[in-house]
Amino acid sequence: MSESELVIDLSSIPLKPIGKREIQQLEMALIIGTLYRPEVLDLIRDPVERSTWIDSLAVAAAAFARYKAGVPVSEIAEELGRSEVTIRGHLNQKTKAGKLVAETYEKIKRGELKIAVPFVTAPQQITALEVEKTQLEIEKLREEKRVLEERNKMLEEELGKMRSKLSELTSQIKRIRELTVELANIVNKLLE
User: Which of 89, 97, 124, 162 is the S-S candidate for 56 at Cβ 3.0 to 4.6 Å?
Assistant: First the structure.
């Protein structure tokens, strides 16, 4: 496997969007640019926090892009399904997501934001020999599994027999104890 890097160019992103298409472009740039910041990547590693963080980040980016397009806060809140207080919190950078999105916007504005997304690619070709080797390994593992399943079945049968024998022995021990008590009673009566 080899590692490659995808570089995302954000130089053509409209900073004062006009129309829905440009708003969406700025919104996506803010989301992606903020999402790939090391501190955000650390925050979303926690599965409990991930959905909350991504949602908050998406709302902050959407609010910021619309605000830069001149959309009033009340319309932004209605369109995003959030309260005006929440939207103002993001826009005034009173939330961590709002602050991070605003910082990302400034980096885009200064031309400093370059996003390099690493990803791993699969090998270009898998040889017939590798396929055959993998198939042989799979067959070997299947045979091992079959043998283990048979052995497991035999052991379970043996365990069942042992449990049955244990039950018989337990019954015999119980009967011997009863006879011992009876014998002790008879001996006691004879000695009286």
Answer: 97
**Residue 127 carries which side chain, given as an amino acid letter?**
T
Q: Tell which residue, 66, 89, 92, 96, has the closest CA to residue 78.
A: 66
Domain ranges of the chain: 2-121
What are the residues facing 117 on neighbouring strands? 6
Measured CA to CA, the distance from residue 11 to residue 113 in angstroms comes to 9
Furthest-apart CA atoms within the chain: distance in Å: 116
Which residues, in sequence order, are bridge partners of residue 2?
121
Per-residue pLDDT tens digits for 36-68: 777 777 777 777 777 777 888 889 999 999 999
Summarize pLDDT for 91-104 with one digit per residue, the tens.
999 998 899 889 88
22-27, Cβ contacts within 8 angstroms, sequence gap of 24 or more:
22/69, 23/65, 23/66, 23/69, 23/71, 24/65, 26/64, 26/65, 26/68, 26/69, 27/61, 27/62, 27/64, 27/65, 27/66
Buried b / exposed e along 15-51 (16+ C-beta atoms within 10 A): eebeeeebbebbbbbbbbbbbebeebeebeeeeeeee
Rounded CA gap, 137 and 120, in Å?
25
